[in-house]
Amino acid sequence: MPGGSKQDARSVPVEARCVRLKAKAETPALLSPAIERRPLSRAENQVLIEVRAAAVNPSDVKAATGLMAYAVFPRTPGRDYAGIVIDGPAGTIGREVFGSSGDLGIRRDGTHASHLAVEADAVVGKPKGISWEESAGIGVPFVTAIEGFRRAGMPESGESVLVMGVNGKVGQAAVQIASWRGARVIGVVRKSEPYEGHSNSQIEVIDASNADVATRVRELTDGKGADIVFNTVGDPYFQAAHRSLAVRGRQILIAAIKPVVEFNILEFYRGQHSYVGIDTLGLSSTATGAVLRELGPGFASGHLKPFPIRPDAIYPLEEAKAAYLAVADSARDRVILRPSP
How many other β-carbons are positioned within 10 Å of the β-carbon of residue 261? Predict the structure, then answer.
């Protein structure tokens, strides 16, 4: 493939195989993704990537079933990816990269394809020693976790971080980042089970079915409460999270089942609390790339680790519907599409 230059602002197109959704479906079971071959080339400020792996996120399925009014159709879904640059500005060709985005696969064609054109400053060097599938699985969960901490204030040594929904992928990413930063981490699960992910220190787990979360948090923190609550679930844990906060504590919210909750304003201002809402769909590819670069040293040092990818959670593009249904059924594994064997 020719390298990019001022005379070659747009490269010769490649024939990309893409998953295509013609229109939204009422339910995941009614999704009918097709495989199409489409010419794809890059713009002057872009690189052209041969996609080796792409993750399937819950947001991909939600957008496909009409839960995101701004999702465009027809389109190719997919926000996360890993692959090799095959065309781009000087010095980029041959780079092994990964990335994510809030607009890819939602407002523009995404990563569930054999090739992807994306802004050159959006891609991040793939961590060494990590597989294509593992790299593709980093994106949305880790971006959501670190963006929450960036907005609320990064955890510090001596602080306590309470993670609601600790065994979800965002929850596990939050544990990794908080424990990497030296914070004490307490996790909440809805039934009796241990913490399943990687951590840089011991994680104390509260079984919400068998204990009052806020009372237990106070016991574990000598009455202080949590400096940061990362609420990955939303309203079911909102009151427990609120009651678990220390003075000047911060609650990070990334999801909701029911959009309306009771809110005690008096306790809020007397506790000097802060609430931070995170929606990574508002981040462009370039902004997401900047966030992912902050994680690079953690993966290089081994303090951060990608999610294990089970072989039976990897699907070819032709089985995209099965991959989407697995995610819709709340699979706890990271689900990956592999464009080629």
Answer: 13
